[in-house]
Amino acid sequence: MTAGLRQPRRxxxxxxxxxxxxxxxxxxxxxxxxxxxxxxxxxxxxGWVDGALRVAGRRFTLPSDDLQGDLVLLFPDSDAGKPxxxxxxxxxxxxxxAWVSVDATLRRGETVEVTARLGWDPDGGVDTGPDASCLxxxxxxxxxxxxxxxxxxxxSCPLGCVEQxxxxxxxxxxxxxxxxxxxxxxxxxLPAGAAxxxxxxxxxxxxxxxxxxxFQVPQAGAPTIxxxxxxxxxxxxxxxxxATGANALALLSEGPIVLDGLLDGSASGIAGGPGGxxxxxxxxxxxxxxxxxxxxxxxxxxxxxxxxxxxxxxxxGxxGxxGTVSGGVAKPFSLVETLxxxxxxxxxxxxxxxxxxxxxxxxxxxxxxxxxxxxxxxSIGGGINVGxxxxxxxxxxxxxxxxxxxxxxxxxxxxxVSLHTATLAANxxxxxxGSATGGAVAGASGDxxxxxxxxxxxxxxxxxxxGxxGxxxxxxxxxxIGALExxxxxxxxLGAVRINTRTGSAEPSGAVxxxxxxxxxxxxx
Length: 525
What we know:
Helix content: under 10%
Number of domains: 2
Distance between the termini: 30 Å
Strand order of the largest sheet: 17-16-21-24-29-32-34
Structural class: mainly beta
Shape: elongated
Number of strands: 36
């Protein structure tokens, strides 16, 4: 392709080649370049054919008197039928003063003519035709430069700018199919001390906020994700968002997300957090890919084993033996580091129960699965808790301690993530103590800290203690202790945190992360 600036009217001849090589083809694009002021003393030209950059910043010096001329681009016949676009900058003393984009479709053997007018105000009353305003945008480093009625507008692109097929900001592509397919005019703003309750099963939010856009994303072999879409999210200090339900939770925002309060996706009783597995009772076993198994029992001999702890990013602990019967084992499970699919924690197994008991030492539920996505930035000064529930006891009869639920998953995705004073916790719960003649204690639940959830004490002398839950310093759940009659439940394993940013790293200064943590780069388009 060759090009020149030549004089059909008043501009002096400036015939210059833009690319090496020439062609005899008459397939051409003629751009009538008109400048409103002689103060524009230089043109800088960028050109694309079918999205491919052909001309990159070639410069033409202009005389100070003539205000109009032709820019002629020649193309090979093979480009016929393809879209061509040209961005022309007008510079004054080396500074950008005006610019315009023009578009055309090339035709074989013909010269297509368009007009580019530099320096006109589209609302100034001058009838300059469809090319009077900027008809497109261009990238300037990481910025997107466009034109509005008031002049040039520069937009900072958090993920950088891309020229093809048209100039635009790169967009974030969230994991697990949580796509930016819906927009919302609503902001989630919670002042200090406020509370909101989210049910991922029903898609309902209780509290004094407007109903957001919502959709659901099924996952193969994993819980469905319920996605709530806001324009921006700002959760103030001491404010609480509590999430429950069978589905995993995703909060999606094009704008910034600020979390200075608490997002609580922890388990409650045998119920898992959002998308987490349930703990076992006499009606049903524990659920989740790493669910703990039930303790054995021998009603004739008066022995009961503890339930196994749930596994997630790390293994849960096995239940302690009771006399001659074994405790439930912790089911092995290998979690995908990228959190694709998005999985909650697994529930703990129940303790073996003797005699004609109608209850048992129930297992704790697994921590929830939470995905937070912003197209702009995420800043966390508060906390996110997806801890597993501690195992339960049955002090009315001989019974092994319940196994604890594991910690869940937290996935953060944004161009930039700041964790200045954040606490992200996916701790496993502690197993319950074995009950032989009463007096056993339930295990502690995984809380918002890096501390270990303690296992509960068993009946003195005859009941074993529950194992501690997995935490930052020790990711595996501890085994329950064996005893003469009733073993303690196993502790739940540690959960996971994944942080995806533009650079592949976050800013964890001052943050406490009690989880198996990994960093990666966001996907873009």
